[in-house]
Every structure is written in structure tokens, then in C-alpha cells.
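Q: I have 343 residues here and want to know how they pack in 3D. Can you give me a structure?
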Amino acid sequence: MRHAKHLSTLSGFLFYASIALYSAQAQSGWHLEKTIPVGGMGGMDYLTVDPATHRLYVPRSTHTMVIDANSGKTLGDIPGQQKAHGVALVPKLNRGFITDGGGNGSITVFDLKTNTALGVIAAVPDADGIIYDPGTDRILVSAGDSNSLITFKPEIDPKSGKIEAPIPLGGAPEFLAADGAGRVYVNLEDKDTVAVVDLSTRQVIARWPVSPGGSPVGMAIDKQRHTLLIGCRKPQKMIVMSTENGSVLGDLPIGAGVDATKVAGKEAFASSGDGTLAVVSQSSDGKYEVQSVKTERGAKTMDFDSATGKIYLPTFDFEEPKPGVTGRPKAVPGTFKILVVSR
């Protein structure tokens, strides 16, 4: 009903409307609890946590590690990727899916109990962000260089199965979110917009600007408040957007080099490569504040364990930049680690 939609949008607005920048970390209670040393070869990208088992699935370029979040012990290592990006889990099928953006692009299917590969599915170049949408029972993958959204059923034959016809997006996608009712929201980083995809028609049905943000990369959905939390790099903001009509309900200050956003209850988070974690939270007087938690340089992706309330962020130690040298800092070999942030 039109009236119901108005009320849900209004509640989302009220949740985020009263924002104050607040840097006192102690007020939120969030802090860097510990560091899990991992080491090993390879880079990093999206980390995924399984709240039921407290296992961390950590892409490392050519392989994907499985780490026990409590002990820090490596439980498995799934080889065979060229450029591993992200992991989606479907526990009901005992399956996991790893995006591999190297070469022509592929998806590695693996067993969640044994951590062994079951097969590799051909995809498209630059298969990147990946999620599982229980509402439509689909694996959803953004493919940046291919300007497309990939979909397939998680029951796919891991050796001979084929993806469904890619959905053209008209821009380079980064991360994505699904509402569980057939709509998928995809950041188009090069277009400064969110593409709204209807999975029933397999068409882009709307394009919503993220202004006053730009270069949108991280995305999370708050289904209760009907909002998207979008991490933008240029300028660096968290954009709060209505999932009903694309209206921008708020723009919040965050750190530089954001790559991920998450929602947990009444709080939202944005992790940035400058070594900060922005926390949007509610104060005792009912207002909402943006607080900055110090992490470490490079900790730009994350996942939230809904069972323990802990946040996990991968990063490295980095070499100090030489005078006059610009660009990305160089990681120190063997220093890969996972930061644990808790309240």
C-alpha cells in the first residue's frame, strides 16, 4: 500500500537523519580486540564469516584459506584460483562459492565440511563481488570488466553446470545487495549510480545517483528500514538510500579508501583503507552519531559475525613509502593478518 511505503521510508529517514560526527571511540565501546597472525602467500579481498561455525573464508589471490576465528588455526586451503575475490556460503547444501576474476572468469564450488573443491564453473571476466540470496535461491555475482550481473542456482552441477545469461548493467559493478523479494541493487562505480535489477525480468529497471557521494563500492542492505548503506570513495561518504525510490536519506562522513559496509541491528559500519572503521550508532538520547574506530592501514574489507558480534578485517603490514613515491603501499611479505574488532 502507498501509505505503508511512506511510513517505511519515513522510518528509515528518522533512523539516520540526526547524525553527529563524534570521534571518541570509548563512547561506542568498539575497539581493536586482537590480531590473528596468518602469514602465507597471496593478496586479499572480501572476507566472509560463517556465524554458525565461526569459520573465516579468506581469498588470497591464487587460493582461499579457511580459518577458525576462535583459535586462529588454518583449517583448510582451497587452491586453483587465479584472482580470488569473494566467497558466498550456502550451508543448506554444504557448499561454498569462490569468485575468480582471472582470465575468462570462473566460480570455484567447494565442500564446506571438507574444504575441498567440487568443481569450477565458467563465468565471465572479472567475476568479483558475490552473495547468496535465499529469497530467490540464487548466487549473485558482480563482474566489473564485463559490466554484468551473473546469476545461477546453488544446486548447479559443479563440473558441467552453466551460469544463466549474464544481465548487462551498463556500467562497471562493484558490490551488491538483494532484498530477498527479487530485486538486486548493484553499485556502478564508474557511473556514480546504483543499478536496480528485477530478477524476474532480468532487466535494469532503475538507475539511482549516489550524489553527494561518488565512486560507490561497498554496499549493505538494511531490510528492516528499507535502506541501502553505500560506501563511496570520491567523495568519501556513506550514503543512506531508500530501497523503494532511490532517494538519498543521509550522507555520513567516513574514512578514505572504503571498500565495505555492513549493517548489524541498529548500527552500520564502513571499513576504510586509511585504518578507520566508521560506526553509525544510537546515543542514549535517541540521536545517531558517526564514530571512528582505529584499525590498521589497509583494513578496507570486513565481515560481521552475527553470533558473536565481532568484526573481522584482513590486512598486512606495509612498507613505509619512499620520498616522492605515490600509489598503493607495498605489503610486507608474510605479514598477512586478520584484525578482530569487538565491543
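Q: Anything worth noting?
A: The chain has two helices and 28 strands. The first helix runs from residue 2 to 17.
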